[in-house]
Amino acid sequence: MTNPCPCGRDADYDQCCGRYIDTGAPAPDPETLMRSRYTAFTLRKHPYLIKTWHPKTCPDLQPGDLEGTQWQGLEVLRSKTGFKKGYVEFKARYVDDGEARELHEISRFQKIKNRWYYQDELEQWPGEA
Ligand SMILES: [Zn+2]
């Protein structure tokens, strides 16, 4: 590999998340979208993050908001793809203000017109009490 993808898959960036971030191809499933969004955070690809955020929940994210955080690695714990909804549980390591931290999140995704979008964060995995 000449340019390993930041998302952690065993592939070059161009053959992995770069296909969605740079060419506009739709990510085929929630996990792939989630990985490409993580990669976009690491590479500060602001327009891609806006484009893949559900219009109803997309915040007023500014390019400057992506500065300062150094992403260190991604681990996908589980994922589930439904017809219109999808879920991904993951851990992402990062350094902020010189302090190592970990983000542990269950993300919910929604499919609109054949494209997956990041919708929001869930408290718990769907169907688990
Ligand atoms: Zn990737």
Automatic annotation (TrEMBL):
Gene3D superfamilies on file: 3.10.450.50
YchJ-like middle NTF2-like domain span: 29-120
Signal peptide residues on this chain, from the entry's feature table: none
Lineage top rank: taxon: Bacteria
Stated name of the protein: YchJ-like middle NTF2-like domain-containing protein
Organism taxonomic ancestry: Bacteria, Pseudomonadati, Pseudomonadota, Gammaproteobacteria, Oceanospirillales
